[in-house]
Amino acid sequence: MRTFRGRLVVLLTLIAVSVSPARAGEPWRLIVVGDSRGEDNGVNTVILTEIATHIVAEQPDVVLFPGDLVEGDTDTEGLISQLTTWRTTMLPVYSAGARVLAVRGNHEDTGSVEAWNAVFDGLFAMPGNGPVGEVNVTYSMVRYNAFVVGLDEYSDHPGRVNQTWLDAQLAANTRAHVFVFGHEPAFRAGHEDCLDVYPADRDVFWASITNAGGRTYLCGHDHFYDHARIDDQDSNPDNDVHQLIVGTGGAPLVTFDGIYDGDNGDMIPCQQYYASAYGYVRVDIHDLQVTLTWVERVDANVFMDMETWSYSAAPRPGDLTCDGMTDWFDADAFVLALIDPAAYSLAYPDCSRMLADVNGDGNVDGRDIDPFVVRLIGE
Question: Would you call 379 helix, strand, or coil by DSSP?
Fold first, then answer.
């Protein structure tokens, strides 16, 4: 067994030979918009082209598209043609270097998953780490200090998610930020066919986001923007998960009366903002801070910021610099936390030395070195 001093030497060596990642501590951005179906071979190409142009100008790293890209077709070749039109319309976003992640909606579910896989292949493919039978439609991805999960809510579990797979993914996550997206709202706003058809399963799903430190669920299906804080009735609104319906990519707009009349279980949806308009949500991430902005189309090719909401995520063990991830910058801070707590507190006044308790035994000591190195290398 290595001595305490020996393990520190190993850690310090790792620091010395490491190359710090360029993204550490830098802000980055993702965009959310869904439901772009229309009459141009299944796509509203006029609105989607405008949105794609503005997305490129926003310079996001990631774009999330929660379903109903197209009108849908039971014929495989017809659905391939529609999805190809969508992909072509979004090509400027791909070409700008953004990672585009989409999940199926109920309109894609009218056809075969083979059509989806034929269009979203190669450079356009989704992460290939989904569960058996759902590869390329359910998946997860790490992006800087965030963990992104795309969920197919159809496959062999319509109206639900693959909870067993999701639980395992969230349990293994080490990033501070968790963004989960799927097509159907978890709490009914417009459509009756949503995740609250199975309220017990929905409640387990919602609790899994909450327990993983997530603060949002991003979805579409309803053709409007609706931001709701889902009150869990613990008298602390700062830990509530928010549902953002962003079905605003070109599908025919509808109105919503603000009454969430589904089976809400023990929770109370509280509307924060609503708009029956086209647009998208911009998500800016900087260290532990997240700011979400609803960007609304107010006229042809004119978009304006209309609603902004911010929150701060909690750092995870091993994140000694509180930037949302465990990386090489944390190694030096970890050594300080072990051998010179006062110096650590002076250098990182907004963080806690207890973040060095990587093995979770309630102490910061030599027993945390090996699990910290494992996490560091694993990152």
Answer: coil
SS3 8: helix
H-only helix segments in 224-368? 328-339, 341-347
User: How far from 206 is each of 117, 264, 275, 316, 337, CA to CA, in Å?
Assistant: 28, 11, 24, 20, 35
Report the chain (379 residues): mean pLDDT per 10 consecutive residues. Answer: 61 56 74 98 98 98 98 96 98 98 95 94 97 97 96 94 97 95 97 95 97 97 98 94 98 97 96 98 97 98 98 94 90 90 94 94 91 80
**Calpha distance 352→186 (Å, rounded):** 35
Domain boundaries, the chain: 4-21+327-378, 28-312
Which class is 28-312 in CATH?
Answer: alpha beta
**Sheet containing 241-246: which strands, arranged edge to edge?**
139-143, 146-150, 177-181, 216-219, 241-246, 225-231, 268-275
